Amino acid sequence: MAEFSTTVKLPVQLAKMAEEYVQEGWSIDMNSLIVEALRRYMETHQAQILERFIEEDVEWGLNGDE
Amino acid sequence: MSKAVLDAGPLIHLSELGALDVLGDFEVLYIPPVVWEEVIHHQPDAAIHADLSLERVEAPIVDSKLATFAKMFSLDPGELQSLAVMADYPDALFLTDDSAARLVAEEFGYKVHGTLGLLVRAVRKGHRSPKEILAVLRDLQKKSSLHIRSSLLSDVIRKLEEEWQSR
């Protein structure tokens, strides 16, 4: 799998929590943890999900029965 | 008249847009402690808006199922608390602009909507004119921190123009 390398700055507290998580054995290493976190973020912020929410909001706004 | 539980997003975004009045007809708007702190920090005007029936509620108990979902979906503390409040008011509307919180709310069977829906609803309820809401939507990306893809927002505005013109 091709890989892309970048540098990110993490808030200290968040980085500490991530390190503890890795040390406890919940993730292989920091890199794997960040990849998994990013993947999960992308899963819950997919364009089609966001678009569905917007369509539902417009429909409710126009025709809601509450 | 209806009840709703607030996450911080809609309060902050509506305040940025000068449109907090669209929440004015809710009988009660429940707001948990962390969300209150978030709003006070980012948009204090929203918290003191005189015409809103904000009711601050105590920190709710988070059950294990919700705690698990919160971890799976990386919910922030405000989203978690507002969803926990929903457990006490399952017939209320959950108001959030966060997609992960919205997905979890759906999982629990709650009715959930966001800032955009509230703005459009204000026309249906007769609180704002179509012209006013279209103006708010056209300024949305300039005035608020609510992120909507430009082309999608344009599509929404076009649809609303057609819809309201035909009525």
Rough outline of chain B: globular
**Helix count of chain B, per DSSP?**
10
Alpha carbon gap, first and last residue of chain A: 50 Å
Query: Could you state the oligomeric state of the chains shown?
Result: heterodimer
Number of helices, where a helix is a run of at least 4 consecutive DSSP H or I residues of chain A: 3
* Principal-axis shape of chain A: elongated
Q: Radius of gyration of chain B from the CA trace? A: 16 Å
Main sheet properties of chain B:
5 strands, parallel
What is the helical fraction of chain A, as a range of percent? 55-70%
CATH architecture assignment of the domain at 2-115 in chain B: 3-Layer(aba) Sandwich
Instruction: Please estimate the helix content of chain B.
Output: 55-70%
CATH superfamily heading of the domain at 2-115 in chain B: 5'-nuclease
Task: Give a concise summary.
With 66 residues, chain A is an all-alpha fold. Chain A has helices spanning 12-23, 30-44, 47-63. Chain B contains ten helices and five strands, in the order βαβααβααβαβαααα.
List the keywords.
heterodimer; A: 66 residues; mainly alpha; 67% helix; elongated; B: 167 residues; alpha/beta; Rossmann fold; 5 strands
Structure write-up:
The complex is a heterodimer of chains A (66) and B (167). With 66 residues, chain A is an all-alpha fold. Helices cover 67% and strands 0% of the residues of chain A. Chain A starts with 11 loop residues before the first helix and ends with a helix. With 167 residues, chain B is α/β, with parallel strands linked by helices. Chain B has a five-stranded parallel beta sheet with strand order 3-2-1-4-5. In chain B, helix 2 crosses helix 5. The mean pLDDT of chain B is 93. The chains are: A mainly alpha (66), B alpha/beta (167). At the A-B interface, helix 2 and helix 3 of A face helix 6, helix 7 and helix 10 of B.
